Amino acid sequence: IVCEEENYLLELIRYIHLNPLRAGLVNDIDTLNRYQWCGHSVLMGKHILNGQVKEEVLARFGKNQRSALDAYLQFITEGVDQGRRPELVGGGMRRSQGGAENKDSKPESYDDRILGSGVFVEELRREENLREKLICGMQLPELMQRVERYYALPPGQLEERRRNRKSVEARDVFCYAAVRYLMYSGTETGKLINIKRSAVSHAIRRGKKVISENPNLLFSLFL
Question: Over the chain, what is the mean pLDDT?
C-alpha cells in the first residue's frame, strides 16, 4: 500500500508540473525548466516559490542533489507524451469512481479544475474568497457562445476555423480566456474549436494582446 501511495504521489507531481506544457503555455521541456509560475522550475533551481517543497521531492530521486535532479528531470520528460490523465484530474464523482457514476451512490461535488475528492471540492466552495469563482465556473461551450455573441458571429463559427480577421480574433480571445482565466488545458480548448495545442499556444499570446488593449472585453464575457 505504501508503495502504491508513493507511486501515485510521484505521478501526481509529474502531472502537475507538466500542466503548463499540456496547456500550451510553454512549448518544450527547456522552456518549462525556466517557467516561473510552476513548481518544476523551483526544483530545477531556476526560481523560488513560497510553499514549494523542493528537498522532500528530490529526495525521492536520489541521495545527492545532482543525481536526484537528473533522475527527476528524466522522470518528468518521460511523462510528456502521456497527455491528459483522467485519473489524476478533476474533483468528485468522475475522479473518485473512475469516470462512471453509480446510480446507487450519493453524487459528489465535481469541478474539473480541482484535484481532489468531492469533499475537498465542497470545502473549497465554502471558502469565501473562492466560493463565487468555483460555483460560477464556466464550461467551454458556454464561453464559446459568449465569445461568438460578443463578436456577433453565427453560432458554431469558432469551430469552422474561418480566417477572416474577426473570427481569428474571436478564437484568440476564446483561447486566452479558456486557458488563462478558466484554467482549461490547451488540448481541451483546441479540441472544441478544431485546432492543435500548438495553435492554441499562439492564439493565447495574440489573445493576451487583444485583452490588454481592451480590458473591458474580458469583463463583458464573464458578466
Answer: 78
